[in-house]
Amino acid sequence: MRSMGNERGAIPGRVAAVLAAAVLLVSACGGSASSPSVAASAPASVASSAAASTAAGGTLNVVVADYTTDSDNWWKNTFVPAFQQKTGITVNLQVMSWADIHQKVASMVQTGQAPDILNIDTYANYAEQGLLLPVSSVISPATQADIVPALLKSGEYNGTGYAMPIIASSNILYYNTDLFTKAGISGPPTSWADIQADAQKISALPGGYIGYAMQLGPQVPQTEWSVWQWAGGGDYKTNGAWSLNTPANVATLSFMSDLANKYKVTEVNPGKTNMVDGTWPLFIQGKAGMVIGNPAVGQQIATKATGVKWAAVPFPSMNAGGKGVVLGIADYIMAFKQKTDNTAAVKQFLDAFYAQQAYGEFAKLSTLLPATTSGAATMSSDPNLKPFIDALAQATFTPAQDPGWDKVLGAMKTYMGLGLQGTSATDTLNQVQTAIGN
Amino acid sequence: MTRFVADTRRDTKARSPRLSRVRRSPEARALIWLGPSLILILGVVVYPIVILVQTSLDRINLTGLDKGFVGFANFQKLFSQPDLVPVLWNTASWVAVSVTLIMVLGFFVAELLNQRFPFRKAIRLALLVPWAASVLMTAMGFRWIYSFYYGALNPVLQALHLISSPVDWLGTDATFFPSLVIVTVFVSVPFTTYVLLAGLQSIPGEVLEAAVIDGAGRTQVARFVTLPFLRPYIGLAAVLNAIWIFNSFPLVYILNKSNPGYSHDVALTYMYKLAFDTALDMGEAAAMSVVNVMILTVFVILYMRVLRPEDAEAA
After folding, report:
1. Is residue B225 assigned to a domain?
2. Nearest-5° angle of CA B9, CA B10, CA B16?
3. Which residues make beta-bridge pairs with A60?
4. CA Rg, chain B, in Å?
5. Residue A414 contacts B, CB cutoff 8 Å
6. 3-class SS at B23?
7. Is there a single domain that holds both residue B6 and residue B105?
8. What percent of chain A is modeled with pLDDT above 70?
9. Within this chain, do residues B88 and B44 fall inside the same structural domain, yes or no?
10. Cβ contacts (< 8 Å) between B63 and chain A: which residues?
11. How does residue A213 score in pLDDT terms, banded at 50, 70 and 90?
12. A392 and A279 in one domain?
C-alpha cells in the first residue's frame, strides 16, 4: 500500500514537471515569434545564422512525394544531410509514394500531426482550413521572385499564396514520327479532324498499330480530359460554378467516344485504361501513333532504348487555326502552422531548397520541369525538354486551388471512363456533375 | 474464475509474506496475469471499434478534420447510394462462388494427395507456393497474365484455338468476375487442401476397409464414409475461406484498378474508394466499415458454431 501511495504521488509530480516544461517551451517560442519579421528584413546570411541559433536542435518534419528513385535519394542522401550539418536543424524526412501519400497525410492532419513541410499536389483544402503559413512568411523575397509568376499564382487561395510550386510539368501531344511518315502524314495534327484522320491512317497500317492511345481510366482521367475539354471550348468552371456537363463538354466526350467506339482507332477499352501503366507503354513501345504525355514519356523512350522517334506539340484545338492547348501541372510545397512557431526553420529549409544549384539538381533528377526562372533557363538546352518548357508559358492549369477539386477528381475517377464504354456522354457528365454536387 | 482465485490464494498463503499481502485483493492478483492480454485486446480490438463507430457518426471533411456528431447521416447517405446493393451482391456472389469452387477442388486435390505415389512429399510442398506467396504479388502477376496487350493468357488460348481474337479479361464486364474468381480459387485451394487432407488422414483405415469389404464402390465410400468424417473439416475450411476471401482486399483492388465506377467493387474496395479515392468521405466510409464488421460478425458466429465440439459430433 505504501508503495502504491508513493506511485500515486509520483505521477502528479511528473505531470506537473511535463506541464512546466511545456509552459516554458510555449513561452520560449512566444518570445521568438517576434523574430521572423526582424529576420525577414535582415540580410539572408544574418537571418539564417540567427535562426540557426534559436532553432538549434530544432526539428522539422518534412514529407515529400516520390518522383523518381533518384530524386528520393537526393533528398535522403544529398540535400537533407547537408542541410542538417549546416544548420543544426534535425530533419525527419519521409518520402511517400503517390499511391498512399494522400491517405497518409490525411490521417496525419486528422490526428493533429501535420508535418512542418509537405510536398504534395493539392493544398487548397489545407488553405481553406487555415492550416498553412502564407508563402510570403516562409520564403525570402529573392526566392519568391525567381519562381515563374504563372506557377506561383497557381498556388494562391483567395488571393494569398499558400503553396509554392515545387515542380511543374506540361502535358502535350506526342506523335510517333516514324509511324506518321509510314502512314503518309506530313506533319502534326492541327485540328480534331486531323487527329481522327491521322489516327485512322495509322490504325490502317499493317502491324496492328493504335492510332491514338486514349485514357479515361480511374487513375488520372483529368490529364486526358483537361486537354480535350479546353481544346473543345469547355472548362471545369463557368461563372464560379462547376460546369462539367455543358453542351461543349458533351460534344467533346462524344467525339472521344466516337474515336474509341465508332472509328475504333484507340486501344481496347480506353475508359478502362490508365496512363502510366496503360497508354504510355503503348506509345513508348511504338505501338501507338499519338498519346498525351509529359516529358517522362520521352525520358522512358530514351532509357528503355525502344528506338521510337517522336515529336511533341501543344494539343490541337477543335478547329484548325485555334490556339493549341497545354495542360500545366504543378506540385506544391507548403508549410503547416504548428502549435510552436517554426517559421524560422521552415524558411531556412525552403530557401536552401530553392537555391539555384540545389533546386537545379532536384528538378533534373525529378525528370520534371523546373518552377524557377533560373532553372528553366539552364534546362531548356535539353532538346527533349524544350518543347515542354516552352509549352509551360501557355499552360492552362486545372482548378487545383479550388477546395472542391478533390471532390471533382473523385467524381471523374468514378464516372468519366464510363463515357467511353457505352454510357452516353450526356449521362456520364451528368453523373459527374451530380457527384460533385453531393 | 472464483475457483482459480481461491486456488492461488491457498498456494500463496504458505509461501511468502509479500505475496500474502496480495491475497487481500484476489481480483488484483488475477488482473496481473490477465492484464497484458486485456490491454492487448482493449488496444487492438476494442479501441479501434470504438473509434470506428464514433467516426461513422461524425462528419469528417475532405482534409480529414472531424466536424462533429451528425447522428446516422453517414448511414443514411450510404444506404441511399445506388451502388451499395450491387456491391453487396458482388461480394456475396464472389464469396459464395469462390468458396464452393474452392471446397470442391480442394476435396479432389486432397484425395489425390492422400494417395500413395512417387514424389508425393514434393508435390504436397509445391502446393504451398500459391498460398505462401503474397496475395498482392499474385494479384499483380495475374494482372499481367490477363493483360490484353502483354498478357500470357491470350496467346496461349489463341494457340489452342479456344478464342479467335484477344480478350480484355479484366476490362470486359462479362469476363471480369470469372477472372477474379479464378485468382481467388488459385490462392485459396492450398489451404483448403491441407485442412481436408488432415481430415482424410484422421479417418481410421479399418472403417474404409470395412466399407470396401461390405461391397461399397468408390463413390459409395466417398459418399457414406469419407464425407461424413470430413464434415467438421469442410465446415471449418468453408467458414475460414469465406472470412479470408471477404477480407482479401488486394485481389479485387489490383485486378479492378483500371475500371471506373463501382460495378466490379466488393465491400472492402468500395469502402476504400469511399474513404480515399473517389468520394473522399471518411464518415461514409466508416459507416460502410461498420456494415463490413457486422457481416464479418455473422461469419465469426458461424465459425464458433463450427468449432463447438457438440455441433461437430451432431453433424
Report:
1. yes
2. 80
3. A91
4. 26
5. yes
6. coil
7. no
8. 87
9. no
10. 106, 109-110, 125-126, 128-129, 131
11. very high
12. no
Tell me which of A4, A97, A110 to substitute to probe the interface with B (most B C-beta atoms closer than 10 Å): A110
Counting every residue written for chain A, the total comes to 438
The burial of B32, by beta-carbon neighbours within 10 Å (0-12 exposed, 13-18 middle, 19 or more buried), is given as exposed
State which residues form the domain around B33. 2-56
By C-alpha distance, the chain B residue nearest A101 is B276
Same-domain pairing of B111 and B32? no
Cα gap A93→A63, rounded to integer Å? 6
In this structure, are residues A194 and A320 in contact, taking their beta carbons and an 8 Å threshold?
A: yes
pLDDT digits (tens, 9 = 90+) for A25-77: 333 333 333 333 333 333 333 334 434 444 455 899 999 999 989 999 999 99
> Could you give the 3-state DSSP secondary structure of residue B80?
coil
CA distance B187 to B278: 29
Do B185 and B39 share a domain, yes or no? Answer: no
Beta carbons of B189 and B102 less than 8 angstroms apart: yes
**One domain for residues A134 and A98:** yes
pLDDT at B240: 92
Of A109, A278, A435, Cβ closest to residue B258: A278
Is B114 in contact with B127 (CB distance < 8 Å)? no
- Residues of chain B contacting A217 with CB distance shorter than 8 Å: 258-260
Answer yes or no: do A116 and A201 share one domain. Answer: no
The residues that bridge with A291 in the sheet, in sequence order, are: A174, A213
Nearest CB to B279: which of A278, A287, A410?
A410
Cα B132 from Cα B155, distance rounded (Å): 28
In a domain, B66, yes or no: no
Joined grid coordinates for residue A364: 533534373
Domain count, chain A: 2
What's the length of chain B? 315
Distance CA A203, CA B88 (A): 41
| Closest to A428 in 3D by CA, of A260, A265, A210, A199 | A260
Tell me if A41 is assigned to some domain: no
A127/A133 Cα distance (integer angstroms): 8
For residue B310, tell me if it sits in a domain. Answer: yes
Give the chain A residue whose CA is nearest to the CA of B173.
Answer: A421
Q: Is A106 on the interface with B (CB under 8 A)?
A: yes
Grid cell in block for residue B162 = 479456344
Residue B63 placed within a domain:
no
Same domain, residue pair A243 and A316: yes
pLDDT-derived band at A17 (thresholds 50, 70, 90) equals very low
Contact A236, A404 (CB under 8 A): no
> Based on the structure, what is the number of domains in chain B?
2
Judge: B279–A106 Cβ closer than 8 Å, yes or no.
no
Dihedral sign (CA B206, B212, B213, B216): positive
Q: How far is CA B39 from the centre of its chain?
A: 26
B134 touches chain A (CB under 8 A): no
* Candidate ranges A244-253, A322-331, B38-47, B74-83; pick with highest mean pLDDT: A244-253
- Cα distances (angstroms) measured from residue A425 to each of A257, B219, B270: 8, 58, 24
Least confident of A30-34, A361-365, B83-87: A30-34
Domain encompassing residue A68: 57-168+329-397
Are both A128 and A184 inside the same structural domain? no
The 10s digit of each residue's pLDDT in B90-113 is: 999 999 999 999 999 999 999 899
Residue appearing with cell numbers 471446397: B103
What average pLDDT does the structure give for chain A? 85
The tens digit of pLDDT for each residue in A296-349 reads 899 899 999 999 999 999 999 999 988 999 999 889 999 999 988 889 999 999
